[in-house]
Amino acid sequence: MSEEKTTPIDPITGKKIKEISEEVGLNEYSEEEVKSNDNNGDGLNGDTLITEPTLIQKLSSVPDNLIMAAKSAWIGRERGLAVFAGVFLASLVITTVVAYGVGLSQAFLQFSLEEEIFDVKMDFSEDPGDNVTGRTNDSVQWESVCDELANMEEFSDCGLVFGRQGVRVDGFFDQDFIIPQPLNVANATGITGDWGNVSWAYPEASNSGPPINDGRILRFYGEGIWDGEFAERHSKRLIYGSWPSSADAETNRSVVLPSQIASAAGVSINDTIDILTFTYVTDYLSFEDSVAGRTLENCAGEEVVEQSGFSFCRVEMTVTNLKVSAVYKEGGAGNPTLLFNPVMISESVLNDSQRLILMDNDHGYLGLTVDRNLLPTTSTADATEWLEELKKDVEGQNYTNSGISVEYNDLISGTITFLNIFLGIIQVFDYVLMIPIVILSFSVLIYGLVLSLEQRKKEISIQRVIGGTEKTLSRIVLLELIVISMFAWFFGYIIAMLATPDLVAAVGFMEFDRDSEFRVNPVLGIVTIIFIIVVTVGVSWLFGRSRTKEFLSIEIDEGVRKVAKVKEQRTWLHLLVFVVGLLAALESFIQSNNSDSDGLVGNFIFDALLLLFGPFMLWIGGALILGRIGAAGPRILGLILGWTAALKDIKRGLRGSGSSESVNRLAVVMILTLSVVTLAAIQGVTGSLVDERTASAQVGADMQVQFDSPVTEEVARAEMMLAIDRVESQEISNISAMTSVGDIFTSPSGEGALIRTWVLFDNHEKTLIWDNQAIPGDDQDTVIDLWSSGGFTVGEEALDVLDLERKNSLARNGFPDLVMGGGRTIEYTEYSFGGISEDFTPIIIETITETDIEFIGVHEWVPGLGGTEAAQSIVIGESAYRELVGDENADNYESNRWFFEFCDETDNNCAEALRNLNVEITNGEGVSSADDWSNAHKEVENSGGLIFGTPGLLSLQFLVAALASVASAFVFLSLVLSQRKKELAIFQAIGASPNQVVRIVLFEIMSIIVVSMVLGIALGITLAQAFSGLFGIFSYIFQIFLGTSTPIDRNLVWPWGRVILVNIMVFVAVIAALLFTTRRALKSDLAVVLKGE
Amino acid sequence: MLRVSELKKGFGSGRNRLEVLKGINLEIQQGELVALMGPSGCGKSTLLNIIGGLLEGDSGEITLEDFTYGTRPPNKVVDVRRKGVGWIFQDFHLLNQLNALDNVVMALELSGINSDEAEKLAKDSLIRVGLESRMEFIPDQLSGGQSQRVAIARAIAGSRPLLLADEPTGNLDVKSGEEIIELFKELCRTDGISILMVTHDPILASMADRMLLLKDGLTAASDIRSAWGEDVEEE
Predict the structure, then answer these.
(1) Per 3-state DSSP, what percentage of chain B is helix, strand, and coil (rounded to 5)?
(2) Neighbours of A674 (CB within 10 A)
(3) What is residue A205's three-state secondary structure?
(4) Which of A332, A415, A620, B80 is at 20 to 30 A from B211, Cα to Cα?
(5) Does A813 score more than 50 pLDDT?
(6) Which residues of B fall within a CB distance of 8 Å from A983?
């Protein structure tokens, strides 16, 4: 065989392998080596000329590779910045959303548990009786169980309480739950105070839960309750005095009174109660036993029948010489296990005999607080499970030498069960709400990746020419990508964890209550963190990998000659998506402005799908389509302004700009981000306004007071002034204005149908907080004038009664319906006693008066009055009222309900004063209830007049989108300009001055930005409308859920100030970026740039 | 028309300082086609860039008609590029989004000429270089030779007295390259334009009126005969 036949030949080049090896400087392979490793018979050594590194070699080279990748990333930091921005935003948003969900659970739990002071009621596991084991009558021994429980880290405080008897059932609906009775206050006397004025009945207790007891309850607290965590929790509700320490409580024989009792008795701090009599229960009889003829035997006291039908033997006991240490504000009904709003007395006032009796009769229990920070925050289910485990642990042991066994009554779990449902609905909505911002951050990431890879196109192609394989090139690019992405993820994670507590504490759009009592500390589990890394860095890696593969497969000369293949865009798809989105927006607009209309889509399911998915399609389709218009900004504005001196000499250089993909992407990102900014601002501010409007509609004024019986203005005023004197507030020293709303029944003249008729007295607008949504049209002054000059408005459901039509279905939304017309005559019938007839029947005299009223339009509600009733009513002014009832009656008007104006309710100091005044008024003479604007607003804010926590999320959307728009402008701009460096150098080479170059760049980019801004805002407004349907549904549900009687329609408001502010920020950032990068481009070596080195 | 006196230029500093031009002296008359040759890295492009106002020298002086410069930075010699020197690059450096006519008009408008007049001048230039039928074509639709002609039209449209061509035929085939040189010669002959051309191709260089050899930062020869070692005086 000749040498040529045996010598290995490279089939591609025809050269001898040996020659190739020498050329590339590789080891010389002998013929035998080549043949033995030639697996596919092509004459080459194996399939490569290089041996593969082992796994250990690969692993040991990882740190070096990472360092090199980091250095390379730093050197090419401009292109890396785009990737960094995208991954950072994605990490920030996703981490915040997840942490927010955790924080929300914590905050909601804290909020819901706020009313609960006790977390556990620990009873003996066995009922009292003879020869029962596991119990003790020794209160000291029972109290000592606290010392053993203190060793468990789950409990933060423990103390002895004499109060409700032992509860040994699960759940509130077991009949046996209502049997254990509390201690009830029977009587009190003292030198100070008018104790005869105090009623010890407390029917609210049985109205707010199972019918256990309807008297004012009493608890005696051991020393453990006067200190520590219990002291802290009790202190929060005090309005006068301070919570005494255990030593002081013992020394002073302290009593802490609920505000209603203190007010009724007229006592204050340091006043004394000479004798307080209370009752305890020794025995009971069920209703069935009673019916069966049994009686309570040997009842040493009085037999009392409760609402439940059970009879209880109540025996009196007295304690003496008590000193009032504090007064607390009564709260709402919480967990009924311990009942509500007790009188609290130090246990030290009891003598040993009394303690023994109370222990004997099962009135002694241990109250415990759980360290709520230990409650799992990952989910409410986890928290419930944790509590169940704790219960098992505690009940599984015996305590003290006597082997006491316990029944653990968990007071938190019930709250959590309710939470689960509520939180579930909220979280679904919140996650839906966050979809745009998550997509946005990924868009920035993907666009940033594409741009950064485009920067390396030439580099990759050249490397390939000189021998780089796909594998090695891929590795270089992806390693650099991973290093940048990991840094970006980490920064996003840190900022998200720092920001989440404040976001959860948002009380309105971009309003954060830093002094909020709800402090959350969301901690993400390791699995969650890994998930976020996988999603953010993973997406970055995946997308980078696919794009890199694509680049590596392009023709070599394409990369070197810088000729790029233009991808065909699927315009038809983008257009279709956009059109569907627009349809959704239109549908939402029609439905929200015409409650009678079904909109464009009749089918319920299709309609629901359209309203659910439409907004997202509008956003994405809109950005893609409008992005092209944005990118054509230079051409559009060039056409308009090309004749001006600023553009005359450079306008030709602007032609064709916008045709590049990078510029198109810049426009799309700007539109995506600014539309979300606009959407978040509109929905956020609307939500905050809905909260305020809800409070205003509910309460109607600063204060709404309901009296037990109708009173004149003078009496109402006098009562109010007394309360003001008692509260001694600097903010409120007088009544600014007051009014009432008259309530009579009229009927259309000659017809029998009665219509509820509300009367607005002159100057009511100085007291009542009106809203444009409540009135026809949007000019309050005009409508108020019309009312007082004989006009009337009508509720939606009363239209038919008066044979009127709604003049314009869009009347409420800026299309005024103030055409006067449709006059009506209404009559009022007054009945008076005219004596007795001959056949001894009473003579009723009917006096009918009439008045003519002019139709103004349809009202939605009257401040402070029920929305449902408003729909069925008409509202007239004082002049019409006087014509109906006469001046004498009008002058002596009396009402149960009066409204008061004191100060600016939105001011914090005024708000606090209103809350304090409310307490005093409620406890006043003849007052049934009082509602103040401040408490109503706080409740709406904290419990989500919109949806709990949503102001925070909308604030997050706003901030992130604003940040994204500024960051994108900076990052994309510098990359776009880098791509244009050569073009700018050509301009200079052919005679452009630096000024002309700056103008070209400025005008081109600014026109893209300005057009994109306008389009972004327009898209955002349309988006807000499209999302309105979704928001409206949830808002309505939650307003009903939380018991708002006047659900406010979610009519959008337009916070132009905030939107324009963000756009100005973007504008300024872009100009700064432009000037910086253009200066740099102008300073760069023209010759070098032109040479392309 | 063009005089370069003691032009020096170096790059880097300290130990890494490299003096590329060590005192260039040359003159170019009106209507001359001069070829600039030399080994790689000798400073041909540097010299061209300084004359063309894309780079400033360290010392020395350049006089081009009414312009005197040499050490001023590019942003201070805009007028040189507008009215004194026209550039022709190896890569053509046309604006890809503009057609041939607009590429030429753009350069004129940047110089302050109004649109109507600029269009007229641009058309004249394109006709002059033989591209009458290609005015509406964008660079992607033109051959290499045609693209280079557009670049030439752009350079001559503003009545610039001097054209600087940095390897103008580097990206062209032989025939197109020869055509470009022929066009250069015609421009020199009939329009009185001077052209200073950097080339590696001795055949193209031989078509020039004169050859300048750059070696070790200095002009080593200033005519083709002496470059080839022949005695000028004998002629």
Answers:
(1) 40, 25, 35
(2) 30
(3) helix
(4) B80
(5) no
(6) 95
Does any CB of chain A come closer than 8 Å to the CB of residue B158? yes
Structural domains present in chain B: 2-228 (3.40.50.300)
Average pLDDT of the residues in A131-155: 89
Give pLDDT tens digits for A1041-1078.
Answer: 555 445 556 666 777 888 888 788 878 887 887 777 77
Where are the extended beta strands (E) located within A692-753?
Answer: 703-712, 737-739, 741-748
Task: Give the dihedral sign, CA A574/A578/A579/A584.
Answer: positive
C-alpha to C-alpha distance for A461 and A459, rounded to whole angstroms: 5
CA B135 to chain centre: 23
Nearest-Cα distance to chain A for B89, in Å, is: 9
At residue A121, the pLDDT reads 93
Q: What is the pLDDT of residues A885-904, one digit of tens each?
A: 999 989 999 988 899 999 98
**Number of CB pairs, chain A paired with chain B, less than 8 A apart:** 77
Q: Are strands A343-346 and A311-328 parallel, antiparallel or unpaired?
A: unpaired
Q: How far apart are CA A860 and CA A773, in angstroms?
A: 7
Q: Average pLDDT of B115-138?
A: 92
How many Cβ atoms are within 10 Å of A555's Cβ, its own excluded? 11
Residues of A in contact with B75 (CB under 8 A): 993-994, 1082
Average pLDDT of chain A?
80
Q: What is the three-class DSSP state of A654?
A: helix
- Sign of dihedral through CA atoms B41, A1082, A972, A78? positive
- B49:A653 CB<8 A: no
Angle CA(A1074)–CA(A1075)–CA(A1080) in degrees, nearest 5?
A: 100
Interatomic CA distance for residues A944 and A427, integer angstroms: 13
A652, A989, A993: residue with CB nearest B102 = A652
How far is B110 from chain A, CA to nearest CA, in Å? 5
Buried b (16+ CB within 10 A) or exposed e, A481-502: bbbbbbbbbeebbeebbebbbb
pLDDT class of A470 with cuts at 50, 70, 90: confident
C-beta separation of A457 from A553 below 8 A: no
Interface of A with B in 623-652 (CB under 8 A): 648-650, 652
Contact A656 B96 (CB under 8 A): yes
Given this model, what pLDDT does residue A30 score? 55
Task: Report the gap between the CA of A988 and the closest CA in chain B (Å).
Answer: 8
Where in chain A are the domains? 3-51, 117-411, 701-936
Q: What is the largest CA-CA distance in chain B?
A: 56
E-assigned strand segments in A83-237? 120-124, 155-162, 183-189, 217-221
Stretch B208-227: mean pLDDT = 73
Q: What is the pLDDT of residues A668-683, one digit of tens each?
A: 888 888 888 888 888 8
Chain B residue with the nearest C-alpha to that of A643? B115
Residue found under tokens 């990206």 = B171
The H-or-E segment that residue A1053 falls in is none
Give the whole-angstrom CA distance, residue B79 versus residue B111: 8
Residue B228: pLDDT band (50, 70, 90) is low
Q: Which residue of B has its CA nearest to A1083?
A: B75
pLDDT tens, A62-71? 777 777 777 7
Structure token pair of residue A671? 């539109």
Close Cβ partners of A763 (under 8 Å, ≥ 6 residues apart): A737, A739
ipTM: 0.91
% of chain A residues with pLDDT over 70: 79
Q: Do A1086 and B55 touch (CB under 8 A)?
A: yes
Search chain A and give the residue with CA nearest B112: A649
Rounded Cα distance between A381 and A391, Å, is 15
